[in-house]
Amino acid sequence: MVPIIACSIVALAIIIERFWSLRRDKVIPDQLVGKIWHWVQQKQMTAERLRDLKEGSPLGRILAAGIVNANQPREIMKESLEDAGRHVVLDLERYLNTLGTCAAITPLLGLLGTVVGMIQVFSVITAVGVGDPGQLAGGISKALITTAAGISVAIPSLFFYRYFRGKVDELIVDMEQEALKLVDAFHGNANTDKKLGQAA
Question: What is the pLDDT of residue 171?
């Protein structure tokens, strides 16, 4: 039971942390690309703003990498965005493998506890006989508690693991679209330039 309780605490901490860290407004601030394009056009993109952009949000970190390479050819700018994006994805997926591991091992820990408990019950039967059937049933029920506890931890852990995986995938797609808007703006897509001007 001790490892199962430890896994439940770890899983709960990860779920709370990921709910906080994967909020959409925290990952993809509203109209960020439009603001950046406005700053660029007004010659207001200072080193301090670039640093704040990089530290402000995951999307800002990606876009800052693109701005640094804005004077390079389109392909080099896209590569810099993709490279920054890979690092951001790792941050978004932080702790999810641990949550998945908790979901996978807690039923096994529960089953192990039940097997060990049943072995002890049958060892007692071998030593002293069946004795009181009520006590025997009580020993078996105690052994089964670990399996129930393991499954009770595994079900919500697996649910939130899948939920956060899907949320990260959705955020990645949206960040890619925002990054492409910035690339198009810097490299002459008139329609995108117009849209960003309106957004700013």
Answer: 92
User: What is the reported pLDDT for 199?
Assistant: 47
Helices (H), 57-189: 58-68, 74-92, 96-128, 133-186
Q: Which domain covers residue 64, as residue numbers?
A: 2-94+162-199
- The residue ranges of the chain whose pLDDT is under 50 are 190-193, 199-200
Identify whether 107 is part of a domain: no
Q: Number of folded domains in the chain?
A: 1
Conformational region of residue 115, where left means phi above 0, alpha means psi within -120 to 50, and beta covers everything else: alpha
Are the CB atoms for 61 and 54 separated by under 8 Å?
yes
Residue 49: CB atoms within 10 Å: 16
CB 180 within 8 A of CB 63: no
Q: What is the pLDDT of residue 190?
A: 45
Any domain includes 59:
yes
